[in-house]
Automatic annotation (TrEMBL):
Keywords noted in UniProt: Proteasome
One Pfam family cited in the UniProt record for this chain: Proteasome
The UniProt record lists the keyword Transit peptide: no
Coiled-coil annotated spans: none
Descriptive protein name: Proteasome subunit alpha type-7-like
Organism placement in taxonomy: Eukaryota, Metazoa, Ecdysozoa, Arthropoda, Hexapoda
InterPro entries linked to this entry: Ntn_hydrolases_N, Proteasome_alpha, Proteasome_sua/b
Alphabetical GO biological process terms: proteolysis involved in protein catabolic process
GO cellular component, one term: proteasome core complex
Amino acid sequence: MAGNLLVGIVGNNCVVIAAEKFYENQNTICSLDGKITVAWSGYSADSMTIIDKAKMYTNTVHGLNSPANRVAEFLIDPEIRVLNNLPTLPYTESFMVASSDNNGQNLYVTDTYGTISHVLASAVGRKSDLITNVLVENYSTANKSILGTVEFALKTLCVISEPDAKLIDVSVTAFNRPFEIVDSSIVNQFLSKIEFSRIVNDAVKIDEV
């Protein structure tokens, strides 16, 4: 899939999603009810339509106790698509759905064929296979505190994405904390740290040659 890249990671007490943006005002992440976070990659008009329906669904059916897996199921429900005149399989977008509550930290990923996966770390969008492999290789040794997970997500995203805070959204979904989008100035600090580490590592490699 060639949509914008999303990187989702389950931390010790949080779920972090880092989303690439193709332009500064692009919407990529939202909260349904303050507890469920949804990010999307693909055709934005279709994504926003089905997400608006999901917001209504969570409020009317589950109130403020919507389980993340039910939200993921709703987002790919073919009957909902037909009723709202949206493309059926294959879909034009993929989703990440994150939650952090009494049931722990959960991250669900959907693909364009309507499959749902319950994961600890994954990527969707362009070059997602490559980025998912990077996540798998580094997940067990990564610092998974909130700040550590944010840094891990950004570092992984920037394997292929431009390290520009204006073109990246980062969400944190944590237990007993309000949903938040990390301020761009903080994202920029992380990106500067990541870039500095790359420069140092490259210099070390040159010295070793």
